[in-house]
Amino acid sequence: MNNKLVILDRDGVINFDSPSYIKSPEEWRPIPGSIEAIARIKAKGWKIVIATNQSAVGRGIIQLADLFGIHSKLLTCIRQFGADIDGIFFCPHHPSQKCACRKPKPGMFLEIGTRFQVKLTDVIAVGDSLRDLIASSTAGAKPFLVRTGNGCRTILEHEKKVAPLPKNTKVFDDLFTLTKSIIS
Hints:
Layout: E1 5-8, H1 34-43, E2 47-53, H2 55-58, H3 64-79, E3 87-91, H4 107-116, E4 124-127, H5 130-139, E5 142-146, H6 151-159, E6 170-172, H7 175-183
Parallel strand pairs: 1-2, 1-4, 2-3, 4-5, 5-6
């Protein structure tokens, strides 16, 4: 059984983020190198799963059909490189719902570990925000931070002692750079 698994946040890691949310496939734009990075990871035999907070659904900003359209565009882009995603997990809840799946809670990660039958201590989890890192670290996965998306702000808050990064967090410029490190 292949236990090599990478969990990726979506907005800010794979695609450009927006403070007003990604609301349609037309607004979804990949960060340069991110799709190629996913294809390279897959070519080395790793599984890739996306774990993403999508409160725009719970806020009534987008419908599930919109979210699925965005994910369809993401998958189409990845498939053009001969790769695929093994699963997409998302939390559609409004933050006030206090669900177990919304990052920084570890619910999505624990579900991924169960569904893919992997020990999360062997899993690399990539995010651009502190909530991504906390969720992955709490679940036992290895936290990796990219400087894209909210990554630079996350690093700045850490340096100003506003919000410390989880222990053993590794930092990379972007998903493509991180990929070169983990597959070498």
